[in-house]
Design a protein that fits this description.
mainly alpha, 73% helix, globular
Length: 306
């Protein structure tokens, strides 16, 4: 097999394994992503706590109120954009991660923790550019608190955004820098920690113990990445979501949004939605990495790419 043919087959396997990992993760973990977005869009205002039936005091309270006022299927509001985006998004992330590793070896014969971290940063920024329009539509849908049968379709929301604000920084690419910062930082920690620690923790011959090892490292990677990048996630939700005063842009830039939230609501507000985010991306991160590893190894054995 020629070098070109081998590289193409490896790329195809990386795309297939990454796409599979993304699809499985989003189908399982989407409800927690929605809860996280609701918390991040909710301003800290004590006067609303008793007056607004849609004010959420915790994860359980949020889920109860969503079920009561919006119906069971409301937990999957805005899932179509991630489904449409996650397969190519994760495919691009894992593919570009493998390619970026080649550029960050810095003369070493084997990848170092710095290699994994910088490759993760590059992969995260690359996927953010691809996925940002889907994120704008998803956040718009997730912020809608109407009963699920009254929520407009994904396509109608997309058309409305394009018609009113276009494709640029006020439309489908709103909040791009915040998405790049969020995804870049998360994947820098996520890939850097997972691949570095996985190399130090001995593998188990028992398949069940080996599965548990990968799950534990993947879970920790997702939790750490979530804790580090959450302020940028809050900024992204505020920029892409509905503004407090219709027609008036309050949250415009990433740094500006973080500064506003900090000044008006305090430091803790920058970590809004952290618990549902961790509950989603902890196990979600583990699911993605484990599914990727197993699918990639299956394809590698099936097609015998050497």
């Amino acid at each position: 097999m020629s070098d070109v043919e081998r590289l193409l087959k490896q790329a195809a396997m990386q795309i297939g394994a990454g796409g599979s990992a993304g699809f499985v993760e989003v189908c399982i973990m989407h409800p927690l992503d929605l809860v996280k977005t609701r918390f991040q869009l909710q301003a800290t205002n004590s006067s609303l706590k008793s007056a607004d039936p849609h004010y959420y005091n915790g994860i359980v309270d949020c889920m109860k109120k969503m079920y009561k006022y919006e119906g069971l299927t409301s937990f999957w509001k805005g899932i179509l954009p991630p489904i449409l985006a996650e397969t190519p998004k994760r495919a691009v992330k894992f593919l570009t991660f493998e390619q970026y590793k080649r550029f960050f070896m810095f003369g070493s014969s084997t990848p170092t923790p710095l290699t994994f971290s910088l490759a993760g940063l590059g992969a995260g920024i690359t996927e953010a550019i691809l996925v940002n329009p889907f994120e704008v539509v998803k956040v718009t849908l997730q912020s809608n608190k109407a009963f699920v049968t009254q929520v407009p379709s994904t396509w109608s929301v997309t058309r409305q955004i394009v018609r009113e604000n276009g494709l640029g920084s006020k439309g489908l690419n709103k909040g791009l820098t915040a998405t790049m910062a969020r995804n870049g930082i998360f994947n820098m920690v996520y890939f850097g920690f997972y691949h570095s620690v996985k190399g130090y923790v001995p593998e188990y011959e028992d398949p069940l113990l080996e599965f548990g090892r990968k799950i534990a490292i993947g879970f920790t990677s997702g939790v750490l990445g979530s804790c580090v990048n959450i302020p940028f996630d809050v900024a992204k939700s505020r920029i892409q979501g509905p503004q407090p005063t219709p027609g008036v842009i309050k949250y415009n830039s990433t740094v500006g949004a973080i500064n506003l939230v900090y000044r008006e609501e305090g430091f803790r507000a920058l970590y809004k939605g952290l618990l549902p985010k961790v509950l989603r991306l902890g196990p979600g991160g583990a699911i993605m990495l484990v599914v990727y590893d197993y699918v990639y190894n299956y394809l590698d054995n099936k097609f015998q790419v050497k």
